[in-house]
Amino acid sequence: MTLRPLLFSLALALTPAVACAALDPSITERPTPTPIRASKIVLVGDSTTAVQGGWGPAFCARHVSAFLSCVNLARGGRSSYNYRAEGSWDIALQEMRPGAYRDVHVLIQFGHNDQPGKPGRSTDLQHEFPDNLRRYVREVRAAGAVPVLLTPLTRRQFRAGVLIDDLAPWADATRRVATELDVPLVDLHARSTAAVQGMGPVQAMRFAQAPALPVQVSAAQAGTTIGAPPAPGTPAPGGVDANAIEPMGQAKIAFDYTHLGPEGAGFFAAMVADELAQQVPALRRNLIP
């Protein structure tokens, strides 16, 4: 038997790596690779963070590296109360246990559905809302993860050219809890209100999920935003803000001043990523601007 058939016969009896080395002497034993150290972000909140109508999908798709997993558990119509009451928080708790991850950061944004007038969702601003945030923070830490509080994303309604800042009290309450418990704070409310006020009512309309009606554009050009007029034969809403009667579940693809289409999601996701990189240095190397 010649030398080459003999080597081939021997190689068949060896492990694949050794067999390859026997057949090709240029292949040397590979060194053991350095284990990767991956991190994780879990998003918790309402429709302004959720998979449709929120900034969360753009954030997870565009602003995290391959070493930073991103799980969006935000759900439309949820407040700091009913997100827990329905069991969504129990699911989030399972996702935030470190396991194979080096660390897990949990981003929590509530406020929109904690406002008055939303049965089964509204919370008391002075006591219940901040107490709910405190409890979330304690339980995230108990699970071995790192809590990050976000102030609520602004709405985009205007009166006489001035942004109607109806979420300011909930943003203030979130800031106070973050200071009290020494929690990193992404002040999305402050940055988003400044940005939307700067662009004005007409330009801000492009952030919605669908185009505005001509009558709404005309009103915005005069400085004051309006809801859609009622259909013929439908009673007028009586001054009730359409944002205050947001249904539970997935946001419908329609024009409003709260939810986000692709352009709005991209704009505010970049804002969150930038603010997060500043406030949580441990995540900076795995965040993409």
From TrEMBL:
The entry lists its GO molecular-function terms as: hydrolase activity, acting on ester bonds
Q: Residue ranges of the SGNH hydrolase-type esterase domain?
A: 44-190
The domain of life is: Bacteria
Keyword list (alphabetical) reads: Hydrolase, Signal
Signal peptide stretch:
1-21
Pfam family of this protein, just one? Lipase_GDSL_2
What PANTHER family does the entry give?
A: PUTATIVE (AFU_ORTHOLOGUE AFUA_2G17250)-RELATED (PTHR43695), RHAMNOGALACTURONAN ACETYLESTERASE (PTHR43695:SF1)
Q: Which family does it belong to?
A: Belongs to the 'GDSL' lipolytic enzyme family.
What is the protein's given name?
Lysophospholipase
Q: Which organism is it from?
A: Stenotrophomonas pictorum JCM 9942
